[in-house]
Specification:
By secondary structure, the chain is of the alpha+beta class. α6 packs antiparallel against α10 and α16 crosses α22.
């Protein structure tokens, strides 16, 4: 019997929601998503109609076509939910994302689909196909597809509720931006270009000058780093960490209870055990063992850093008892200026946005042996830049850069799939949704060096999506690894920022064209290394919070008490009452209990980076091996196998420990002299 699974999937001519008018019209977006969901259902119907012995060709092909269409709908509804200019479109996109998620939950509990996949004969299949089938069947069992009808119906209701709550939680953060008023005097210490973007307003000739500042990243971060006014830093901190409070407190409490009920129905002790069951980590207990290693590795270094900072601050403010969390960034900046003769503002003129973008693209092009060409393809907003990816003269992918803040846009930094690539069917497409300085006419968008690291990080995700988007199966394409492997490519690429030759290839003064000097780079690297242990303690705090929230009885959790208790146990910086950071901790919806991913993947990423020749980062053979054994695989292999394929062994802590303690191996001088 000859079956063409693709013929069962009706594909409209408009591959993108915005080409179909979805970015301009809520109705057009709804129609576009409906077409994708109809194609999804058609593929499943054709799959279930097969009445011959089941094989990957007559069953998995239909299933994968259904996954492909669901992915298209979910990815693009998610993008427009984050970036659409029209609130009506964003609202519709949220509804569509919820509709897609409901369809996904229904699919994960579809007993007929599960039994059809389980009945396939996979002897002699490729390792990728075998992995796909085994992982898919595990996901069905973890979802409860093997349960009775009543249990599956109950689980579907719970999943739909969790989806709605997650979307509501994210939207409250996205649209919860606040503003604060600062006096002219409180702006002392802020960079000149920041002041020029925030002109002082005087209501009357006798009124004190003031400015309005938002909690968006380009406004918030410089205040926390440079403003000498402790009162201004405190107001900004509280505004930023309450921008989704109190609404998200109740939403999060309901979400935690719903997730725990799902875990209980499926026979798991906690959501954390369920969420790690199909990950590299394997269980919540293993996650806690890993966190104990992080605690031990970072504790002494973080304490030493804090003591240095506190001693430094006391010399400048006699009588200072301690340093609160709102002053952490400020005192680190002041210490670095003294200890390393490095002012982070001094490098900002060398990092105008346009030069950074060109530098990141050039680095990735050379490392991965591809070419990027500007494209005239349509996007969802005129501010978005579109690029094509070419290799050997052949188009192999496309990406979108939406890099500056605007009203209603998501306020964080992320990479998102747009089109799930499938070999011979669709080219992979991805987007970066960021909030870097710049974007307005005449504004060079001077970036802090941490902004540049973030750009490299997110571009690592993007290259994973593009280069890993040529697999045979949509379900293995791009980001489709275990969730706790997905941050390896991003954290590996950000390490390239440390290379002097690479930096000098694009870091040039926006006015004079002068390259960033070797001496300034040396100071920047020394200053950047200081604080790594403390930064890892911050990761440990977020990680432990996300794990504890999902590994205890939700009815017994007091969000405010837990957040404060963990902060005081893991952070040296004095707690500030009124801090409701959990209400805007957006990773709780995506990573849920598994925020450990960042620290776990940092260990792997640093071990990966250590395989590159420091004298020829972009030209050594490690780049080609890394691309082939890791990025190009997408999700075709377990993460553990990809680690072993590239390293020849499991990851080790040696490179991580060296990185964590690098600050104390070099030129840390006595501060405050």
């Amino acid at each position: 019997m000859s079956i063409d699974p693709i013929a069962a999937v009706q594909v409209c001519e408009d591959l993108h929601a915005w080409e179909a008018g979805g970015a301009q019209s809520a109705d057009a977006l709804a129609a576009w998503v409906s077409a994708r969901l109809a194609a999804h259902e058609a593929a499943l119907a054709a799959m279930l109609a097969v009445n011959v012995p089941r094989t990957p060709e007559n069953t998995l092909r239909f299933y994968d076509a259904a996954i492909e269409q669901l992915s298209l709908a979910g990815s693009q509804a998610g993008v427009l939910n984050s970036v659409a200019a029209d609130k009506a479109v964003r609202d519709q996109a949220q509804l569509e994302a919820q509709r897609v998620s409901v369809a996904g939950a229904a699919l994960s509990l579809n007993r007929g689909v599960y039994e059809a996949l389980a009945a396939m004969r996979i002897e002699g299949c490729s390792p990728a196909t075998t992995h796909y089938v085994e992982r898919t069947l595990l996901s069905y069992r973890l979802a409860g597809a093997d349960k009775d009808n009543a249990t599956r119906a109950h689980l579907q209701e719970l999943h739909e509720k969790a989806t709605r709550l997650s979307l509501e939680f994210s939207r409250n953060i996205q649209e919860g931006a606040k503003t604060i008023v600062a006096t002219e005097a409180e702006l002392a210490g802020l960079p000149a270009d920041y002041l020029s973007r925030h002109p002082v307003v005087k209501a009357t000739p006798n009124a004190e000058g003031h400015v309005i500042l938002s909690t968006d990243q380009p406004d918030m971060q410089p205040v926390m780093t440079f403003a000498s006014s402790a009162a201004l830093r405190e107001r900004m901190f509280l505004a930023y960490h309450t921008r989704a409070y109190p609404a998200n407190k109740e939403v999060l409490e309901q979400l935690l209870a719903t997730r725990q009920e799902i875990a209980t129905v499926l026979g798991f002790r906690s959501w954390a055990d369920l969420a790690t069951a199909d990950q590299m980590m394997g269980s919540a207990a293993n996650a806690r063992t890993f966190l104990a290693k992080l605690d031990e590795a970072s504790r002494d270094g973080a304490l030493r850093e804090y003591e240095l900072i506190l001693d430094f601050a006391r010399r400048r403010q006699p009588g200072l008892a301690d340093i609160d969390i709102t002053s952490r960034g400020y005192w680190y900046e002041q210490f670095r200026r003294s200890a390393f003769d490095f002012d982070s503002q001094s490098v900002r003129p060398y990092f105008p946005y346009a030069k950074v973008e060109a530098g990141v693209l050039e680095t990735a092009a050379r490392l991965f042996k591809v070419e990027f060409r500007a494209s005239t393809a349509p996007a969802w907003d005129p501010a978005v830049s579109v690029f094509e990816v070419h290799e050997g003269g052949k188009l192999v992918g496309r990406f979108y850069l939406d890099m500056h803040p605007r009203e209603g846009k998501d306020k964080w930094f992320s990479a998102a799939p747009v089109v799930t690539g499938v070999r011979g069917r669709y080219l992979p497409e991805a987007a970066l949704i960021c909030n870097f300085p710049g974007g307005d006419e005449g504004d060079p968008g001077l970036m802090q060096y941490n902004d540049v690291i973030t750009y490299f990080h997110e571009f690592g995700h993007l290259m994973h999506a593009i280069l890993g988007g040529h697999t045979e199966w949509a379900g293995l394409s791009g980001f489709a690894t275990e969730g706790d492997f997905v941050e390896v490519p991003s954290q590996m690429l950000e390490e390239f920022f440390r290379d002097e030759k690479l930096l000098q290839s694009f870091a040039r003064h926006y006015q004079t064209g002068e390259p960033l000097s070797s001496e300034l780079i040396r100071k920047m690297k020394l200053a950047g290394a200081f604080g790594r242990a403390d930064g890892m303690r911050a990761q440990l705090y977020y990680t432990t919070l996300s794990l504890d929230l999902h590994d205890q009885d939700p009815a017994a959790i007091d969000l405010d008490r837990m957040t404060k208790r963990l902060h005081q146990g893991l952070q040296p910086w004095t707690w500030l009452e009124g801090n409701r950071m959990y209400a805007s901790f957006g990773h709780l919806t995506g990573y849920s209990s598994n925020y450990y991913t960042y620290a776990f993947d940092k260990v792997i990423a640093l071990d990966f980076f250590a395989q590159f020749d420091p004298n020829d980062l972009l030209g050594c053979d490690a780049g080609s091996r890394y691309r082939k054994t890791v990025l190009e695989q997408g999700g075709s292999k377990p993460g553990r196998e990809m680690v072993r394929d590239f390293l020849g062994r499991d990851e080790e802590f040696a490179a991580f420990s060296k990185w964590l303690n690098e600050e104390f191996e070099g030129e840390l001088v006595a501060a405050g002299s």
